[in-house]
Amino acid sequence: MARKTGKKRVGSKPKSKPETQPSSSLLPTSVPPPPPVEPEEAAIDVLPLDVLPDIFRRLSLLDILRVALACHRWRRIAARCLPREPPLLGYFFHPVKTPPPPPIQIKERTFYEAVFAPLDTTSPCLSLDFAPDASRYGLYDCHQGLLLLEPTVPIPKTIHPRLLVLDPATRRRALLPSPPRDTLPDDHRWRRSRYYVGSAILSRAHPSKLCFEAVCFTIDGGHPRAWVASFYNGQCSWRALPLAEQVLVDFDPYWFETRCVHAAGKMYWHICNSCRVLALDPATLQFSYLLPPAALPGHRFKYRMGETPDGRLCIVTVEHQVMQVWVRGETSSSDNGWVVETEMNISKVYDTVPGLPMDRMRRRQSIWVIDVDMGHKWKLFIQMLGYGTYSFDPKTSKLERLATKGGKEYGYPICAYFLAWPPAFLAQA
Predict the structure, then answer these.
(1) Do 343 and 198 belong together in one domain?
(2) Alpha-carbon distance 179 to 228, whole Å?
(3) Cα 158 to Cα 131: distance, rounded to the nearest angstrom
(4) Phi/psi of residue 424, nearest 5 degrees
(5) Has residue 293 got a pLDDT over 70?
(6) Running DSSP on this structure, what letter comes out for residue 74?
(7) Which of 103, 211, 318, 354 could cross-link to 205 by cystine, CB 3.0-4.6 Å?
(8) pLDDT digits (tens, 9 = 90+) for 2-53
């Protein structure tokens, strides 16, 4: 019987057996497969631990602070690479117009808000725009990363002004009220004779918090009195200290300079046309007088207190075209406890200033030192009335004019601003 055959479907193809790849062992010229790929570490993480500090030390301060936020490992390394001293970020000051040369003087009445000049391109550009009311206040002190400002509106000297304290790095602010009337018992006894002199930052609890103490001092009945404001958790409390009866103010308190100088662990207030300064010890809050050298040149006592790069108290002057730096030291040749460390004739340096009078007497009337640069403590700020404000470096004998881009100059005070140290996230590293 014949076998039946099925019909082929139209368009169908016979199933073909799948081809198998020849084994790699059978191919003499084949390449072995690559090993399995594992996740690779970042190139910098495979470096030895002793190499990373050398890399971090080559970074700018701002970049070190940024890498410290990357991870715990980098934070510990960055903490060891940071400088021990608080870094200088720049200077705060009020711009002013350059007045005409003497004897004609026209007082500039326009008040310009405080601005910040960065130290270099790696420094952050700080601003006081986070405090809109700062435009009505003037700079009076800069210490431990805080700025203290007082109102520019004239206030009777018998009352305390409200104080504005700013932290430009963290953009925080505190407005301190005047002391309550019950801060000092029997205050009515002193109120009629009270003369408010000035204020300053006394101390700061921690750089990560806006907790600080500010000090004001007044003259009550011919003696200094300290008033301490403590700001903590957004609250301000005042306390008044007893009179410093051992210190007699036997002159008009008007001659006190309202801005203080922080130097060598103490605070100093200059007294115009006087041969002494008033000192305050922040640890004991005790006042005392300090005499400068009796041999200081000049009859108007145009000298400034300051601090040397190694932390010693010093006095500087540029009278009679001679720069002198005196430091504290008890030797056989000391003068009221001071000895001359540096003396330099700078008349040729003045000759480099265009238009500066050549006459010695006119130069004496136009030139005086206004401060020691606390950012670079070997430099001086020199005012040349009618010719600008200058920074003077005795090491290089170079005068550099402190001018703004808008054609103005740096006004007094010129506050060196240091970052509060250490940063909060590195404090426990």
Answers:
(1) no
(2) 9
(3) 27
(4) -60, -40
(5) yes
(6) H
(7) 211
(8) 455 554 455 555 555 555 555 544 445 555 666 665 555 556 666 676 788 8
- Beta bridge pairs of residue 268: 261, 279
User: Does residue 23 fall inside a structural domain?
Assistant: no
Apex CA 201: angle with CA 195 and CA 205, to 5°?
A: 140
Domain annotation covers residue 34: no
Decide if 302 contacts 319 (C-beta within 8 A).
yes
Q: Is 380 exposed, middle or buried, given 0-12, 13-18 or 19+ CB atoms closer than 10 A?
A: buried
The reported pLDDT for the residue numbered 355 is 85
CB-CB contact of 91 with 375 (8 Å): yes
- Dihedral over alpha carbons 66, 68, 74, 79 (to 10 degrees): 130
Closest CA to 319 of 352, 350, 341: 350
Dihedral of the alpha carbons of 112, 114, 119, 125, in degrees to the nearest 10: -110
Is 108 domain-assigned? no
CA 72, distance to chain mean position in Å, is 29
Residue 89 lies in a domain: no
Considering the entire predicted model, what is its pTM?
0.82
Pair 273, 257: CB distance under 8 Å: no
Q: Report d(CA 291, CA 166) in Å as an integer.
A: 34
Query: How would you class 20 by CB atoms within 10 Å of its CB: exposed for 0-12, middle for 13-18, buried for 19 or more?
Result: exposed
Q: What is the pLDDT of residues 81-94, one digit of tens each?
A: 877 778 899 999 99
Q: How many residues does the chain have?
A: 429
